[in-house]
Design goal:
Largest sheet: none
Radius of gyration: 33 Å
Strand content: under 5%
Helix content: over 70%
Structural class: mainly alpha
Order of helices and strands: HHHHHHHHH
Length: about 200
């Protein structure tokens, strides 16, 4: 039974060593466009360079966002009502709280104690919870969009918002309690969003 080489050469009736036979064309094309090519050509180098530039841009964007978040958190802490504190004092209070712990009012004074209490116990946890909630919503949105394979998908598309609104309305109208706590409204909204 003839092999592939004999079949290709006999198909055009050319001798085995003649230039331009189908076999030579296939071997040339195979060597030029091999899927095992090591990628030393200029096209792959420019593609690698574009990839690395894209990675550097993404990392730069993330670092700039973290820095902006750090400075905007200090600004938000100073803008809340009730107790006035200066912008740079916020960072001083947080640094002293990390290094020295909670200040002693008898040694450090009442102002240092109240500054620490307001920043570290009242305002900073609210900002941290806001950041965690924002990250959670971003991840949930990305999951919905990838699940639906639609970049425009949101919680209204999947019915999550409607279910949560129905559960909250049901809890309010019927005064339903599950655990006998103030969190029943949130719990029912969450449970109905899953349905």
């Amino acid at each position: 039974m003839p092999g592939l080489r004999e079949w290709l050469n006999s198909d055009i009736g050319a001798p085995k060593s003649s230039p331009g036979s189908k076999l030579e064309v296939i071997e040339q094309n195979d060597s030029l466009y091999s899927e095992w090519d090591d990628g030393d050509d200029e096209g792959s180098k420019s593609l690698d360079a574009q990839y690395h530039i894209g990675i550097v841009r993404k990392l730069t964007f993330i670092i700039v966002c973290i820095i902006l978040m750090f400075f905007s958190a200090g600004f938000i802490i100073t803008q809340q009502d009730g107790y006035a504190i200066e912008y740079w004092d916020v960072y001083r209070v947080v640094w002293n709280h990390i290094i020295n712990g909670t200040p002693n009012p008898d040694v450090d004074g009442w102002k240092a104690y109240f500054d620490d209490h307001v920043v570290c116990n009242l305002r900073l946890p609210r900002i941290a919870i806001g950041l965690v909630a924002g990250f959670g919503l971003a991840v949930a949105g990305a999951v919905m969009q990838s699940t639906m394979k639609n970049p425009m998908a949101d919680s209204y598309t999947t019915g999550v918002s409607s279910g949560a609104a129905f559960g909250a309305a049901l809890a309010i109208v019927l005064n339903v309690t599950i655990i006998g706590h103030d969190g029943d409204l949130l719990l029912l909204a969450f449970l109905f969003s899953l349905v």
